[in-house]
């Protein structure tokens, strides 16, 4: 059970301009999920902010909550000509989403508003309320996306037929919206590509809704068209903003590149939309269960609310002070995994130092046993066995001197003889060896 103090803490985050925009968005969607009079009061209080994007989302969330208590503030926003067109449009759409027929007169009044996006939105809202009345109070069919849409999905299920209705600008806007939401519910690549074609239609409101629906669908086939629409500086800011948020929801690497490219866009609503979309990208690719994590972010704080209630609150320490989204390009391993990797490398190095040269010597011995010694190994001098001294050494010297002299005499006798096939010259005796008495490779002195 959520307490009033927790709702208040989340509300303070929402209305605090010192907080990062992505933190305020998460607080907003947390309040939307909680619902109730306190949540509506905090959301309504934030309409005095200077961010058109935030106020647009405030109106959207109040409409999705479908609480009649939000009607007065939404009517005030719709009537306020000083509010940005995208904010007034979203207020009109939210009034239609709540579905209370008491707002029909207000919506009908603004069906001819000089701001075309506001006028078209109110026309759609009136058609939706009339459609609800024709159903005789029956509940709306629940769709797969759990959102309250400005028009119900069409009953047609053939993607080609729905595409024709969607792109036919001679048809009523309400019918085209119904085809749009039917394509979204159908899903798949063909439906995503048909919806993406709608980004080239004439109505900015229609293109804005196409971006929103593609964000719900989250199909990467529409990424090139969304990226192109976002990159068009001449496009309506409300269209570019929805394309940016759709790319954040789709959350593919190509989306990340497009969002980073426009993170410093001169149009504020586009710039802020990219900031929020990057936070959505992080959420979609992270382990968090839900985007609206305002309750999880609550920390121990002093008493937040005085006797005056939400209208008399004082600033509290920021919940997200010095907040920075973690980098997405690097993958950080836990410290214990790094230690295990280092230990494994150390074990391999020590094992190679101890066993490696033994294995190498064993391989050489096996090769000598199987194929015999190399020629240079057979002629290599052998060391004297230890223990030769005294008379043994004198006798060995005499024998070596006689062998050397015999070798010189033989060479002199051959100098005058006719040249024959050269014979192998006798090996010069070594001080270390004598002719082996046996075939053994280990020559031993007598």
Automatic annotation (TrEMBL):
UniProt catalytic activity: [eIF5A protein]-deoxyhypusine + AH2 + O2 = [eIF5A protein]-hypusine + A + H2O
Membrane spanning residue stretches: 337-355
One Pfam short name: HEAT_2
Keywords: Hypusine biosynthesis, Iron, Membrane, Metal-binding, Monooxygenase, Oxidoreductase, Repeat, Transmembrane, Transmembrane helix
Task of the protein: Catalyzes the hydroxylation of the N(6)-(4-aminobutyl)-L-lysine intermediate to form hypusine, an essential post-translational modification only found in mature eIF-5A factor.
Record-level Gene Ontology MF annotations: deoxyhypusine monooxygenase activity; metal ion binding
Family of this protein: Belongs to the deoxyhypusine hydroxylase family.
Positions with a binding annotation for Fe cation 2: 208-209, 241-242
Keyword RNA-binding: no
Cross-referenced InterPro entries: ARM-like (IPR011989), ARM-type_fold (IPR016024), Deoxyhypusine_hydroxylase (IPR027517), PBS_lyase_HEAT (IPR004155)
Domain of life: Eukaryota
UniProt remark on cofactor binding: Binds 2 Fe(2+) ions per subunit.
Region (Disordered): 135-154, 405-446
Organism lineage: Eukaryota, Metazoa, Chordata, Craniata, Vertebrata
Gene3D superfamilies: Leucine-rich Repeat Variant (1.25.10.10)
Pathway entry: Protein modification; eIF5A hypusination
Enzyme Commission designation: 1.14.99.29
Keyword Transport: no
Top EC group: oxidoreductase
Designated name of the protein: Deoxyhypusine hydroxylase
HAMAP family: Deoxyhypusine_hydroxylase
Named cofactor requirement(s): Fe(2+)
Binding site for Fe cation 1: 56-57, 89-90
């Amino acid at each position: 059970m959520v307490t009033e103090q927790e709702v208040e803490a989340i509300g303070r985050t929402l209305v605090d301009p010192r907080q990062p925009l992505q933190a305020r968005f998460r607080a907003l969607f947390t309040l939307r999920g909680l619902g109730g009079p306190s949540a509506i009061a905090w959301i309504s209080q934030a309409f005095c902010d200077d961010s058109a994007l935030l106020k647009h989302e405030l109106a959207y969330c109040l409409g999705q909550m479908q609480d009649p208590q939000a009607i007065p503030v939404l009517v005030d926003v719709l009537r306020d000509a000083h509010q940005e067109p995208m904010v007034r449009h979203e207020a009109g759409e939210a009034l239609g989403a709540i579905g209370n027929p008491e707002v029909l007169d207000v919506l009908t009044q603004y069906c001819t508003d000089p701001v075309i996006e506001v006028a078209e939105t109110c026309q759609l809202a009136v058609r939706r309320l009339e459609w609800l009345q024709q159903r005789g109070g029956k509940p709306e069919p629940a769709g797969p996306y759990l959102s309250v849409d400005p028009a119900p999905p069409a009953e047609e299920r053939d993607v080609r037929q729905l595409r024709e209705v969607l792109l036919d600008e001679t048809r009523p806007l309400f019918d085209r919206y119904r085809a749009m939401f039917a394509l979204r519910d159908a899903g798949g690549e063909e439906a995503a590509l048909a919806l993406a074609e709608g980004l080239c239609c004439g109505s900015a409101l229609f293109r804005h809704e196409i971006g929103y629906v593609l964000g719900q669908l989250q199909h990467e086939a529409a990424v090139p068209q969304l990226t192109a629409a976002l990159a068009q500086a001449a496009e309506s800011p409300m269209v570019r903003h929805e394309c940016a948020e759709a790319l954040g929801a789709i959350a593919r690497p190509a989306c990340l590149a497009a969002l980073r490219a426009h993170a410093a866009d001169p149009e504020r609503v586009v710039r802020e939309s990219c900031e929020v979309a990057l936070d959505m990208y992080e959420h979609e690719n992270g382990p968090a269960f839900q985007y609206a994590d305002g309750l999880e972010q609550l920390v121990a704080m002093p008493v937040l609310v005085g006797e005056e209630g939400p209208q008399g609150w004082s600033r509290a320490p920021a919940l997200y002070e010095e907040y920075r989204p973690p980098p997405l390009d690097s993958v950080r391993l836990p410290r214990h995994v790094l230690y295990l990797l280092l230990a494994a490398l150390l074990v391999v190095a020590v094992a190679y130092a101890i066993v490696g040269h033994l294995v190498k010597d064993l391989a050489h011995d096996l090769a000598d046993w199987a194929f015999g010694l190399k020629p240079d190994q057979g002629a290599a001098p052998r060391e004297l066995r230890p223990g030769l001294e005294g008379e043994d050494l004198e006798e060995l010297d005499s024998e070596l001197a006689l062998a050397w002299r015999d070798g010189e005499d033989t060479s002199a006798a051959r100098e005058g003889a006719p040249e024959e096939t050269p014979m192998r010259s006798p090996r010069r005796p070594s001080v270390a060896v004598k002719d082996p008495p046996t075939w053994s490779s280990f020559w031993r002195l007598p």
